[in-house]
Automatic annotation (TrEMBL):
Transmembrane segments: none
Source species taxonomy: Bacteria, Thermotogati, Deinococcota, Deinococci, Thermales
GO molecular function: thiamine diphosphokinase activity
Record gene name: thiN
Domain Thiamin pyrophosphokinase thiamin-binding: 139-202
Keywords: ATP-binding, Kinase, Nucleotide-binding, Transferase
Database matches in SMART domains: TPK_B1_binding
Name assigned to this protein: Thiamine diphosphokinase
Organism of derivation: Meiothermus hypogaeus
Length: 212
């Protein structure tokens, strides 16, 4: 599966887990997200954006990377434009690096964008290293997390027929309405398995052992 990593300008902790997830992927940077290339040991093939958040030093260091420049007064974020560039190059799976943290509006927009992409048949992982998000749509999701990692399910469109296994507090065929906090702050015990009949949302995981 052709995987592209998109470097966004949110928070980043260059963990071993994240480095393993992006290994072998093609890379496109979105504006100031190029700052993550060095810590992750990546060489992007394209740099997309209006370059209003890329420092002069960053632009000098990566002056050799081909650019796709856009005006500041554009209709879409640099991140979404970088994603479109990846899809145009045949991306079949996306990893949005630096998608979490930073501005709340940007982080939430990235999660909703991830849900939309997953619904279009493009599996999408959002990660900032110590925090990652997985879109949830009707079907089955299996997720490997370190034991005792904290995880929360956000019912952005509500959940119907939600079953959750491999966690401290499992569920079976549950209905979770929009805005409910019932599915927050669970703990992974091994491989996490999720089944969903209808609705959509996001699973947010913190892949570090939690303190009991």
């Amino acid at each position: 599966m052709r995987t592209f990593s998109i470097l966004l300008s949110g928070s980043l902790t260059p963990t071993l887990r994240l480095k393993a997830q992006i290994a072998g992927s093609r890379v496109i940077a979105a504006d100031g997200g190029m700052a993550h290339a060095g810590p992750l040991g990546l060489e992007p093939e394209l740099w997309v954006g209006d370059f209003d958040s890329a420092s002069a030093e960053l632009q000098q260091t990566y002056a050799h990377v081909p650019r796709e420049e856009h005006p500041t007064g554009k209709d879409f974020t640099d991140g979404e434009l970088a994603i479109e560039a990846a899809l145009a190059r045949g991306a079949e799976r996306l990893i949005l690096v630096g998608a979490m943290g930073g501005q709340t509006d940007q982080a939430l927009a990235h999660m909703l964008l991830g849900v939309r992409l997953a619904g279009q048949g493009i599996p999408t992982l959002l990660s900032s290293g110590n925090e990652e998000a997985h879109p949830l749509l009707p079907g089955t999701l299996q997720l490997d997390l370190p034991p005792l990692s904290k995880l929360s399910l956000l019912p952005l469109g509500g959940f119907i027929g939600l079953s959750l296994r491999g966690v401290r507090w499992p569920l079976q065929n549950a209905e979770i309405p929009l805005g409910s906090t019932r599915t927050l702050s669970n703990l992974a015990l091994g491989r996490v398995e999720i089944e969903l009949e209808a609705g959509y949302g996001v699973l947010i995981a913190y892949p570090e052992p939690a303190t009991l």
